[in-house]
Amino acid sequence: MSTPDEDRPVRQLRLVVEAEDYEAAVAFYRDVLGLPEQAAFSGGDGAQVVILDAGRATLEIANPAQKKMIDEVEVGRQVAPKIRVAFEVDDARGTTERLVSAGAAEVAPPTVTPWESLNSRLDAPAGLHITVFQELRTLEEREALDGFGTDS
Fold first, then answer.
1. Alpha-carbon distances, residue 39 vs 4, 35, 70, 87, 117 (angstroms)
2. Can you give the three-state secondary structure of 62-125, one letter per residue?
3. Each residue of 111-144: pLDDT tens digit?
4. What letter does residue 4 receive in the DSSP assignment?
5. Do residues 54 and 130 touch, judged by C-beta distance below 8 A?
6. Distances, alpha carbon 32 to alpha carbons 41, 44, 94, 104, in Å
7. 3-state DSSP call for residue 31?
8. Closest by alpha carbon to 117, among 139, 100, 137, 89?
9. Would you say 52 and 38 are in contact if contact means Cβ atoms under 8 Å apart?
10. How many Cβ atoms sit within 10 Å of the Cβ of residue 70?
11. Pair 90, 45: CB distance under 8 Å
12. Continuous segment of H or E residues that includes residue 128
């Protein structure tokens, strides 16, 4: 009998980000946002990397109309580059305040979306544009909302 992981061709999604200010980025994402350190390595010529555990990973692929709509709902204007990193948290307001205090620039404060999450936007260290979001309803409850499903 195979285990669920044996049937999956991809075992992990790892987002690799070059940070000019490595120490500041590590402090922000590990110490302030709270992503646990899984491993860290260093090599010759000052090379350093830290791997932070961000929980379950998903890859969200949106067409241009969806990206535009999300920017309008969350921010009120087009701001996101092609790649935006989103972190689900238990307390979007508190997390946003902590991240701003640690140097992130608030692009938009926590806003309730039509899909019933509380989302904020930030420009964060290492040049990342991020969303911090808190689900306000269960997945089952959100699936019943207009526009949540997919068209056949």
1. 25, 12, 34, 20, 32
2. CCHHHHHHHHHHHCCCCCCCCCCEEEECCCHHHHHHHHHHCCCEEEEEEEECCCCEEEEEEEEH
3. 999 888 999 999 999 999 999 999 999 888 888 8
4. G
5. no
6. 21, 28, 11, 11
7. helix
8. 137
9. yes
10. 20
11. no
12. strand 128-135
Tokens 């075992």 map to which residue?
11
Token readout for 76 is 């009120």
Entry pTM: 0.86
Query: What are 136's two structure tokens?
Result: 């306000």
List, in order, residues 6 or more apart from 114 with CB less than 8 Å away: 73, 145, 147
Task: Give the span between the Cα atoms of 121 and 52, in whole angstroms.
Answer: 21
d(CA 112, CA 24): 30
Q: Identify residue 79 by its one-letter amino acid code.
A: V
Secondary structure in 3-state letters for 41-68: EECHHHCEEEEECCCCCCCCCCCHHHHH
Two tokens at 135? 């689900």
pLDDT in tens, 84-106: 999 999 999 999 999 999 999 99
The first and second tokens of residue 34, run together, are 């709270």
